[in-house]
Each structure stands twice: as structure tokens, then as C-alpha cells.
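Ticket #4471: complex job returned nothing on first submit. Input attached below:
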Amino acid sequence: MAASSNGNFRVIGTRPIRHDGIEKVVGRAKYGADYSFPGMLHGKLLRSPHAHARIKSINVEKALKLPGVKAIVTGKDLPRAENKIEQAGEMAINPYYLSMNILAHDKVLYDGHAIAAVAATSPHIAEEAVRLIEVEYEVLPPVMTVDAAMKPGAAILLHDLRNKEEGNKETNVAQHHQFKRGDVEAGFKSADFIVEREFNTAMVHQGYIEPHNAVGIYNNDGQATIYCSTQGAFDVRSLSAQVLGVPVGKLKVVPAEIGGGFGGKTTIYLEPLSVLLSQKTGAPVKLVMSRAEVLRASGPTSGSKIKIKMGATRDGKIIAAQIWMAYEAGAFPGSPVGAGAMCIIAPYTIENLHIDAYDVVVNRPKTAAYRAPGATNAAMASETIIDELADKCGIDPIDFRIMNGVKEGSPQVVGPPFKRIGFIETCEAIKNSEHYKSKLEVPFRGRGVASGFWFNAGMQSSATVNIHTDGTASVVTGSTDIGGSRAAMAMITAELLGLPVNDVRPVVADTDSIGHTDVTGGSRVTFATGMAVYEAAQDAIAQLKKRAAMVWELKPEQVEFRDGEFLSGDPSKPPMKIKELSKRLARTGGPITGRASVNARGVGPAFATTCIDVEVDPDTGKVQVLRCTVAQDAGRAIHPSYVEGQMQGGTAQGIGWALNEEYFYDDKGILRNTGLLDYRMPTCLDLPLIETAIVEVPNPGHPLGVRGVGEVSIVPPPAAVANAIYDAVGVRMTETPMSPPKLLKEILKKRAAENAQSAAAD
Amino acid sequence: MPIAIIPALLRKYTAGQERITVQGRTVREVVADLERHYPGIAAHLLEDGDLKPSIAVSIDGEIAPEGLLGPVDEASEVYFLPALGGGR
Amino acid sequence: MAQKNGVKAPISRKSLVDTTINGEPVEFLCEPRQSLLECLRDVLELTGSKEGCLTGDCGACTVLMDGRAVCSCLVLGVEAQGKNIVTVEGLAETTRLHALQQKFLEHASLQCGICTPGFLMSAKALLDRNPDPTEREVRYALAGNLCRCTGYDKIVRAVLDAAKTLRETRDASAAAGS
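Support reply: We reran it on our side without changes. The output follows.
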């Protein structure tokens, strides 16, 4: 659908400078940790030095005596929530577990689990007070992997977690999902090639550069305000209300600028504690995590174990897949294994399918969402198996994907057929790229491709469009801007109203100033909030038409709006721009505010296909990424620069996941890499320029064709890197990260086997 | 008549059947009809009179934000899926 | 020294630091344990420099100290004595953005923006000493700054483009002067 008569967009698809850009390049933009208030206190947390232990006692007396210390709270200060899953906005949460993660009640369940929070006159005094808190522990055996947790007789983390299918026994398995289609056994019988492997992917962190933060201000009337960096102010409000045991209406959340989130800032850690400490001290309280706290105690995404058996016929048709997958949830239930199971073969039509998926608690931090949660682990396994099958069939890996790829009408893992999707188009974009056509004939260099799927999300959004008296407008939403979404909202508004993009000011409002809006996550802002903005702008236009009619003494139906002008159809009444009409609002009925709230339907799934060239150092196992191209279906790219930015950023995170990043726990379950030197994210020197091909297969469920672009590009890289490594040195990697020691081991194994073979031949 | 698609783990309650023709104009009525024919199945879909938070319902390929109130028509296919948003 | 219930307060005596920040003479009081980053942010309210790690690994706190890019989290506040400090707040001229700032905006080099101040300062240190860097040299100079949003592509392009603009401006003014 076009907003102007010639069928072309005027603003959408252009690359204006983002409206909030200047504040961010001059250092004026206020992120959560930049807020301060008169009389503000600073808080610090005491965290568990054990992976698994019972808390026998906590003594805060010495700490409280330290001058400057104003208050200390422990798990006893939080109301006991009921052990029951509740709807909080669109999220299903168990406030009992959430509360236990905010401050441990009687057990600590991971290294870094919060135990107490101190408020003092300076962060340094608070830190010293933390050291004076005495805790007696009864140390329990740590359970660190899904294998250890699922073993009979494993130490139990949560005694109220029961296996309802098996006699209500205590268990570490929180959930079992199963998906079945066709007859897997029969499928394998008719396969010419069968590949079977087991994969292990390491737990990784979202790695946002800005640590979690919150400033809480409690007023004596029981109202409290939280300033924090979050992906969802409304979620912070509802989750904090649950943990504090107060109605949502008692809390206001003001979203600060946010320094990255990638899913990790869709939950809460410090927010209710800032309110509780403020309530106890009568002063504003600021809490900011250190980097070590971020790594030890904020949500990473699951490590996983995945076993796949997949079969294909000689002519290249994937005929059967049997999959077993278990994801580490962290200390409390809720890994993204259900999503992983529905993503793992989503790009392909496979008639015979059996997937078992398990959500398993372990003594690691509770996982949080991370960009296409669950899908990247899954694709590491399935997309390398598919590469191997293509190889066995002697078919180009892109052609093999196209042959088996889903299109409109293909069934999803769970039944309902896809609507119009762009998977094949992403494969074709890579196939036609200069990169894929280029030759790569240097030794130890290899090329790999892989694809990925993500659902994308709809959910609730609200928007208002205010027409100002000078003919400019503001667009207000509740979606925190994590990567340029203000610009996209302003562009949609400007497109519809026929205004220059700089005449529209985008605003991100607090929880009292806009209708409920769900998280900035699930690639949903441009899609769902964009839909609300689209409808709010249409609402404003409908009202403006009435005013134009009034001025012209016509009926509203007689007025047309085209190319930013109101037309009367009467030559004696020349077209009127919004700028002219807006001067007359006061005399034609008052101000105009276009409004819309949606619970968005019509979500358009996202696909990406990525091609990566690597060079492997055969003596050290170090992998250098030489070239990388990613093709992704955006539906419609509102601001192409920021679409490319999402594609490049997701790809970079996927490459980090592939090659370097992992949580390293010792045998006692203590995290040994708590800084960014040892938790090794890609630097500038590790990456090439990342080439992008934006595919635009419009989403039929959105008025502008938008799908959402924030997540899927993270999915293919680990598998693409693994496939490139195979192409380079002939070893199949089944573990992430594919770090030098792991790869070198496989290279040496292969060399030893070859030497033994040639010795035997001699 | 609408068709309910039963998740793999619950097919033991439906004698292994995946696709079941049901009556009802809302998801709530569909679940009630399933329970009439396959007693015990509703306990795995509902909790405290509402859809279990771990379950999402999709009607004709579209997640229904209304849950049990979701409207179902004569030709609808109703899927019960694991709710997304894991990892929170 | 402050006492409460017989426990001595650990507060140590503050020092007066005399320094130059963004071209202006500045005096401030700080404890010996406070980092320059903490002094900038909490004492002087210059919150443009960001804290990402406090261990010198992420570069979000990068400032110029006598023209060199340093992680202000690894410099003590008292070490600023007599030095010339430039922070992101001092990068633009009164009414005009620095070419780096302008190019970061034009190339969409920031998404969340938290790493941007550090990147701008590291890039300025590079271009001040090497006006015509290669892509490899840009990457080497920025390798101490972590960005998790962009994959660095648009940052590298912006720095190369800003270098070109700065060279052209310099050549033009040299030509006008001769």
C-alpha cells in the first residue's frame, strides 16, 4: 500500500538522520546510570560465592553499623509470592521464582545469586558494607549441565518442581515438549543418506555494553517511580509490582535511553530493590551492576545439547528428522527450548518428523531472552547436518535449501501453513551475490552457508500522533528505542501525513503517558508499534479532513487527502497543506490527536541466509572471518540503514557465538570469566565489513508490508562458520564456541587418522 | 465444523488422534467439547479456568491474543502450541 | 573523622585536583580511590563518558588525556592534575558537530549509542595522529572499543569518511591560505 498517489513512498525507504542522534553523539542523551537526584543514595548487592547452597543465616549487624549505610534488605523483605504462573501483560511469569531470583530466599542457586542489597551515601561505602554482611551456607553439589541435571539421583535445585507425568517425583526437568508428524521410522527406511550427530552449544551472554541500572524513588503516598534502561517499561512495571506485592498503578516507570539489550533487558533485577531501598530510607536510590555482576547474574541464553538424525533421498529431498534437544534454563524454569524446537527445521518441509525438547534447570543464572531465543543453538545443529546431507547428495548447499525450502502454503513445525514468506528469496539473494559467485581457492580457506528462521512477534502497542499549530507533528509511543526505532516511527508518520521527516518529533513516553506497550523485542517495534503509529496517523488525517471540510463548508466525504494536501475537488478552493490547516485548529474544534492501540495480528515470519568465508590457521586452530554476506527478508525496510544495522549486528553476535564466547565454570560451579577480556566478544579486528542484501517480500498482514528485522540474522552464523571450517580443513565441528583449542583438537585428530591410514597403506 | 489439532504429548488422551472435529464458536467451547469426548484433556490445557500460560492458541495460523475468548468459525483450525517468550 | 556506633568511617581525605577539561580550567575534589571516570560522571556531571566494565576492556569511557586516548576508568581522578582532558562533550565546536559526529549520524553508525562517545574519542585520537588511515589501521585503533549493536561495519565506514572530510577541509583551508 502506498501513501502517495504515484505508488512510490516519499519517506519510507530513505535514510534520514535519526532524530535522537545528535544527543547521542554529543554525550547529552541520558541512559539509566546517568540519572541522579538530590540526596540520592547508592546501592550494592551481596552475591553468592557458591553455585548451590542453603542459606543458614544472614547477619547484617556489622554492615548496618558502618557510617553512611542507610538500609539493607534481604529476601525476607520481599513478600512471598504464590508459586503459580501468572499473566503479567503478555508475559507468563511465575512471581515466586522471579522473586527468588531478585533476592534468594533460603537457597542460592548460582554463583552470583543476589542475597542482600545495601543503600549507602556512596557506592564505595555500600561496597564495603556488602563485605561486612555475614552469611552462613550449607554448600550443596552444583549441577551444571543438562546431562548432570537429567541423570537419575541428580541433586535437585527446586524441590517444588515435580514431574507430573511420573508420579509427581522431584525433578530438574521443568518442561517437555513434543512435536510429531508422519512416520519417522518409515522415513528413514526410504532415505539413501542418513546423518546423525550430537551438538553442544555453550551458554552465551547478550553482551550489551551498558550494565543493568535502576533509580527508585518512593513517595510517602505509596507511589513510586523507577528510572531504568529497559526494553519494556510496562513489563518492568508489572513485574516489579508482582515482586513488591503492590498494584501496577502504584508504580511509574520512566524508560531511560538504553545501552543495548538484545532480549536481556526484558526482565527485572534491580528495579524492585531500588524501590524497596528508597521506601526504607526515604531517599532516591540508584543501583548499577558491575560488568562481573552482569555476567554472573543477569540473563544469558541457554547452553544446549542437541541430537539430530536426518535422512535424505539421493535426489536431494529431506525425508525424515528425529531430534532430541535439552536447553539449560538456568536456576529457574523457562529456557527457550519450545521456540528452539519450533525453529530447528522451520525453513524446510520434512514429511516425517519427531522432536522431543526439554527445559532443564541447572546451577547457572536464569536465562533471559537473547535475539531469536533458542533458534541459534538449534540452527547450529540442523544447518550443519543439512550441509552434510547436501554434500552427500552432491548438491550445492543453496540449491539443496531451495529444493527443500518452505514457501507460501508449506506446513510449519506446528501445523498451520505459512502465509507469504521470503525464505527462498533469501537463498536466491545469496546465490546471486557477487560473494557466492566469487572463487576461493587458497588452502585453509573455506566457505559456508546457513539459513535461519524466527517467528517475530505482534503483541500490544499504543501510539498517539499530535498535530501542532505550526503543522509539525509529534508521534508518541511506549517502545523504547534500542536501535533507531524513533526514526522509523517518525518516518511512518511523515509518510502518511505528507510531512518532511524532520517535521515529526518521535517521543518515547513513560508508563503514565501512553497506553500499554509490550517490550521492544521479538522484532516487533517496527511491525506492531509501527502498525499503531500507522493507524494513529490515519486517525489524525480523518480528523483533519473534517476540519478542512468545515473551513471549506463542505461535507467531510467531499474532502480528499493526497500527497500531504487536502483537496476539495472545487477549483475555487485550492489545495490546503497540513501547515495551513493546522493554524485553524483552535477555531474549528480544538487540537487534534490521532490515537491507536493494537494487539497486532498478521505477524510475518523472518528468514535469513548467510554466507561466510573463513581462513583456518592449521597450527593453532584460530579462525578468521574473511568475508560475510547476509540476506534477510525485511518485508519492507522503513529505514534501510537501520535494517542493515540489525542484520550486521545480529551477524556479528552470531560470529562471536560461533568462535569465541562461552561461560567458563570451574568444577565448583564458579564462573571464571567475569570480565570482557575473558568473555571474548568480537572486536573491530575480528570482523570484516558485513555485506547485506535486504530482501523485501511484503508481509500481507501489515499495512506497509513490515515483518520486523531485529533478530533472525543471529541465527545462521554459527552453522555457516562450522560449514566454512569444514570446507577449509575437512572437520565437522559440533560444539560452540569453535575456539582454537577445540578446533585444533579436531584438526589433529583428523591428521592422526590420515597418518595412520597412510602408514597402514605403506 | 472446526478442527482442533492436538499437541503430540496429549494425543494419549485422544487415542492417538491428531486432528479432531469439534463444536464451538470460541476456544473455550472447543476445549469444553474436547473434554466431553476425551475426559481429562482439559486439565492439560487449562489452569484456573484460563488457558495455561505455557500454552498459546493459534486459530487459522494466527496466534489469538484473546486466548479462550478467541473466536472460532465453522472452517477454523485451532492449534495448541507452546507459548513463546521462553527465556524470560 | 565521622563515627557511628564506634565504627570508624572509611572516608578518606579528598584532594583538590587542578586540571583542564574541554578547554576550560576546572578544579574538583576527589577521593584518592575515585577513578577519573567517576569524577567526570559523579563529581562534574559530565555523564557523556560511559561505564561499561571498569576494567579497561570496553572503551566506553574513553577520553583524551594530553591528546592520547585513555580509558578513564583506569585513570585515577588525582592523575588528572595538570593534564588536558577532552571528553565527548568537548568534541563539537560551539555550533558545529565534529566531522566524526556528523559522519556517525550520516552512516547510522550508532544503534543504542552507549559505546558511541568512546568510539568518537578513540577515532579522534587516531585521526589527530594519522589523517589518512587504511581500513586496517582504523580497525586496529578501535579494537579497544566494544560495540555490540553494529558489527562495526558502519562505524569503520564513518571514520574513513570523516577522515576524508577532514583532509578535504584542511586542504581547502591550506589552499585558501596560500
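Confidence is low (pLDDT under 50) at residues 1-7 of chain A. Closing as resolved unless it happens again.
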